[in-house]
Fold this protein.
Amino acid sequence: DPAGTADGGPAAPDDGSFSVSDKLRVPASLLLEIDNPREQVAGDHLTGRLVLRVMDESPDTPIGHARVPAEYDQTAARALSLVDTALWTKEYRGFFDGTTYDGTRPRLIAMTPHHHGNMPVVFIHGTASSPYRWAIMVNDLLEDRRIRDHFDFWFFSYATSNPIPYSAWQLRHAITQAVDSLGGVKADPALGHITLVGHSQGGLLARMLVINPGSRLWDGTAGRPLSSFHLNDSTRELVRETMFPTPMPEIQRVVFISTPQHGSYLAAMSIARFVGSMVSLPVRVTETARDIVTGAGDSTHLNNRVLRLGSVYAMSPHSAFMRTLPTIPIDPDVQTHSIIPVCGDPRDLTHADDGVVSYESAHIPGVQSELVVRHSEHSTQSNPATIAEVQRILLLQLAQNPPRDMQPGTARVASGHAARRAGRS
């Protein structure tokens, strides 16, 4: 694709980093409608028409004096979308190759075209994973018509072996491009009420979009101010874009699922570090790292970090990045929720974990809610308790941002985040 970049990073505004999926099957309902059926039955022949309705667009069907919602089997449609994906093979191959699960550049994938007034929900998968991990959750959530009628589901696909700040920067670009391509918050205030749902590493990417660290993240990771490095303009720009983030005004809510807020003990193990050393990183990342080491002048303490740029190293509780990130507060205007699975039913949560992340690592103070999902391992996205909690959170989001059809005679008001975004447009 000539619009893309060689290293999978953001390119031109029309680079295709936001698109509607071409692999999903859309549930539909075929209904035979017969006018005046009682009269026709008494006649010589019957006439009618077959009406095809798509789940996300169809109104109710008028039958007599009632309006009846059409029936759909969305489970079958979702299952057909997953046939022949060779999921596990693709996910792990993409991790080691430094690409997405299907070998494409990082991008935001929408299940359906955007409906004006619908609030986006962005699902961000974890390490060595893919958007397909959300299939069961999405299938169940869409059974709730309130969610189906008022939310659009987007999925971010990225190379999970890449540095976390770099992947977060790509996510930021993809969301910005999506919002802009849909006309921005001025055209549709619902685009200023985005919810991020991040699993594991995906939660860390989400956190990077709702913090304002100034120089703290860079200074804590590199050990010295950026001004002390002699860098070329391209490297300095990439460092500023990835390590000096600001909160995205469109993001109103974040749901952390199995997120290693203070690192994963599994990432600190020797086998994890060995696996991390085997992955391929984008050329732009490795060239930036070399330029940083060269630009450090007489400092040598960064040399050992050149080969430790990947996400596996960063998620170790002992990494400078992971020791710094939790000290940076989340924007107080963003509402946050934690869903933390633990194996078994431990009496003491301080010693509980999900097989990858400990409870103490996933727990952060100040969230609007925290749900501990007992008897659940790290991949808890398909757990009924987890799905029910995400459903509750989305309905809370809807209650706090009711659309016009739920507020007769009143205009929808953008939140402070959306207003700031509109002011920049």
